[in-house]
Each structure stands twice: as C-alpha cells, then as structure tokens.
Structure to design on (403 residues):
C-alpha cells in the first residue's frame, strides 16, 4: 500500500487520547484522515490500562493444543533467529533466559472473554473487518524484527515499555531476508521512533515497515489486527463458490466452429467464447486469459502425466542426436496447445508454458512424430530441449534407447 501524501493542512502523527476520545479525535475524523492512509500514535488511548490477561496465563494458553503460538528467540551475537511453533511445553520457557525472546499467541480473544471485551472499543469498524487480538509477551530485546504487515493493526501497549520504529517513506525497500524463517526486511531505515507506555496505542495501515522491541523489562502488547483478504483469496473463493452453483450442463460450446487453419491454436474466436462462458473472464486481458486457459485446457483430468527423463539431456547431446538423424516423438500423455498474443507466442504442454515460434508450436501440436531434417534457431533448440527434459517429447535415436 502507498501512503497518502500529506494534505494541505498538516496532520499530526502523534496525538493524545482520553476516555471520551480514545483515538484522540472522533471516529469519523480518524477514518477520514488516517485509516488506510497514514500511521498514528495515540498517547494515553486507554487511560490507566490494566492487561486483562497475565503473562503466565498467556504462557499457559501457548501450551494448549488448539492455540496458535510461536516462541521466537534472537541470538544477537550470531544474528540468528529461532522460531518454535506451538503447542509449546513448559520446558521451552525454561531455556529462554531473561532477554531477547518473545512469545506470540494469536486469536486470544477466542479463548478469553476479558481480552475479547477489548474489541468493544473498535466498534466504529465493521465487526467482520476485525480478525483477532494477538498478544505478544517479550523480555528486554525481544521482538520479531523489522517487517511489513498487509493489514491494518492497532498496537496497544499493555505492560512495560516497547520501543517502536516505523518508516513512512513510500519508497522504502520491502525485500525480505532469505536467511530467516520470519518475513523480516533486508533494509529498514526508520523515520519515526517512540517509546510506548501502558495505554499508548500505535495504529499502522497496511504496508508500513515497522519494528517493535521490548525495553527495560517484561513487555506485553495487544495487537488488534484487521482481516484483509488478498485478491487471490477473494477470486479463488468466488470461483469455488460459483463452480458449486453452476450446472454440469452449462459447458464451453462452439457451434460456430470453423475448420482450423493452424493446429493447436487457441484463437480469438475461442477467447470470445470463453468470455461468454465465464463471467469472471470478462475482466481479463487477452494475454492473461490465454495464459490461464492454455495451462488449464492442456491438463489431463486423469493422473497420468509424462515423466521427465532420469538424466537431463544437454544441448550438445541433443544437437548431436538430431544431426545424426534422430526424430522427435510427442509423449502420448502430452497434450499441447498454443496461442499468439501480440508478437509473443506460447506453447502449452500439460499445464506448463514455453516461449515458442508459431511455426514450431503448430508443428508440435499437429504432428506426433517429427522427423529430420530440422530447420531451427537457437530459441527453437532451447524449446525442444526443455520439452524433452520435462518429458513432453521423446528423442528417438537411430540406435539405442529413446531419451
């Protein structure tokens, strides 16, 4: 998410809350100026706040079979992170020491009514937008590292102090480290830093890099996270829903079919029939629709698929065999189709996509066996090599076994 540009009237990033205005302003003002737009630190959002759950009770919950918990330890000297997923054991806590570790437990509001009561303070939001209350307990130095969340979150300090650092730079890099299990940022340069006391609350919209570290002593933070399904989740679930409610009698149909000019081609007429048959396809451009349909229509409904050769063939060995008179045989379980989108031609084979020339795509789709001589470019050779090594083509040598 891209942070909104400041309006003509400068908006503060830090305000003071009260019992009457926990957000430091009305809910309408907060939603208009901050919600999904910019971060906000609210000092004293919950005056005289007392945690509704004790640390030892959180640790006990982390040991329950159905609870979602993680124990995260940071070795500062070696810059290593260790993550253990629950259910945890009492012995796990005995090995943590008194610094640089944190316990995360999700969905605590489903287990504890007092914790669930915290959600009453967020009734200005649709309740279906609220995901859960996650509680983190940490000893000094404990945290999960700099990261980015893809959802709105309210971080309420419940016990002790936590140092928060965030970046409001819209161009801040958001690449993840590959050497740790946690989705930590490779680079993090904060633009704002605060020390939160009990009752203080930090609101972060999606996409804001941030890092929270326990400071001085035991620390407890209550994270009220929002539910923000990805487009992939929404489209996938909608597709499943529609599929369940569509009749098997409604099928792809082509009563206007004309004799094909080039074997295996998914042409523009087929694309239009797809759009007529699948309402969701109306919003897709030709390239995306072709890529999906080409992969889909070349997958077999049965489990049989070509097997890749035990030993991959090299380009040198392939050229030597072809120059020696070997032929190419399409695997009997390999189903092929191809499509042209602008200057780009793609050959589809059993759900996979390969760059190809229209000449070779047509030939491979039309002929089960292709015999020498072969007239091909370096790109054509790369295509054949990929198809052979993926099992879609069989190299039939003049002598010896097939590849």
């Amino acid at each position: 998410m891209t942070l909104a540009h400041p309006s003509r009237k400068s908006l503060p990033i830090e305000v003071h809350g009260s019992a009457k205005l926990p957000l430091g302003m009305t809910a309408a003002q907060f939603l208009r100026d901050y919600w999904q737009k910019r971060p906000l630190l609210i000092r004293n959002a919950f005056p005289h706040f007392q945690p509704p759950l004790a640390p030892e009770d959180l640790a006990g919950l982390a040991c329950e079979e159905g609870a979602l918990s993680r124990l995260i330890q940071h070795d500062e000297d070696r810059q290593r992170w260790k993550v253990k997923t629950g259910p945890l054991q009492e012995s796990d806590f005995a090995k943590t020491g008194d610094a640089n570790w944190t316990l995360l437990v999700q969905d605590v509001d489903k287990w504890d009514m007092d914790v669930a009561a915290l959600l009453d303070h967020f009734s200005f939001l649709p309740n279906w937008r609220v995901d859960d209350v996650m509680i983190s307990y940490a000893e000094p130095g404990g945290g999960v590292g700099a990261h980015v969340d893809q959802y709105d979150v309210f971080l309420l300090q419940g016990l002790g102090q936590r140092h928060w650092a965030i970046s409001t730079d819209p161009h801040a890099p958001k690449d993840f480290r590959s050497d740790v299990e946690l989705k930590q940022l490779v680079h993090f340069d904060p633009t704002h830093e605060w020390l939160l006391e009990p009752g203080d609350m930090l609101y972060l919209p999606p996409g804001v890099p941030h890092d929270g570290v326990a400071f001085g002593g035991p620390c407890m933070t209550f994270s009220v996270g929002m539910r923000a399904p990805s487009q992939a989740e929404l489209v996938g679930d909608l597709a499943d829903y529609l599929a369940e409610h569509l009749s098997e009698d409604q099928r792809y149909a082509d009563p206007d079919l004309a004799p094909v000019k080039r074997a295996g081609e998914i042409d523009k007429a087929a694309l239009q029939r797809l759009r007529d048959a699948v309402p969701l396809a109306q919003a897709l451009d030709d390239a995306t629709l072709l890529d999906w349909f080409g992969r889909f229509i070349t997958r077999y409904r049965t489990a049989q698929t070509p097997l890749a050769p035990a030993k991959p063939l090299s380009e040198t060995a392939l050229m030597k065999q072809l120059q020696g008179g070997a032929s190419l045989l399409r695997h009997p379980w390999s189903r092929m189709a191809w499509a042209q989108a602008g200057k780009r031609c793609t050959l589809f084979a059993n759900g996979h996509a390969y760059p190809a020339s229209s000449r070779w795509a047509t030939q491979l789709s039309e002929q089960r066996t292709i015999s020498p001589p072969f007239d091909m470019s370096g790109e054509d050779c790369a295509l054949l090599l990929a198809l052979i090594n993926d099992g879609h083509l069989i190299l039939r040598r003049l002598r010896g076994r097939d590849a």
DSSP finds ten helices and 16 strands in the chain. The chain has a mean pLDDT of 91.
